[in-house]
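Re-run requested by the PI after the first attempt was lost when the workstation crashed. Everything re-entered from the original request form. Ligand of interest: zinc ion.
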Amino acid sequence: MCYKIIQYAEYSCSHQTVTRQQVIDCRKRDCRFSPSHQTGIHSCGSTCAQTMFPDQGLIMEQFNTACPRCGGVTNGH
Ligand SMILES: [Zn+2]
Ligand SMILES: [Zn+2]
Ligand SMILES: [Zn+2]
């Protein structure tokens, strides 16, 4: 089954922001989400995977400032 990798950046306030999303293709013919999914007539609902794996979160970056909502960026106030 295919799944999605979601890359996050984490701020010092422990809030996270999504920086990138990527779908990983399992390359199976019996997965309806894969580009390799069979195109011929078949009973897709009973023979093919109809769901994706849960999203996989990855923290790729860590900032040592708080996020903008928590005041990490001076907004002139
Ligand atoms: Zn798949
Ligand atoms: Zn199918
Ligand atoms: Zn925050």
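Saved to the shared folder this time. The CA atoms of residues 68 and 76 lie 12 Å apart.
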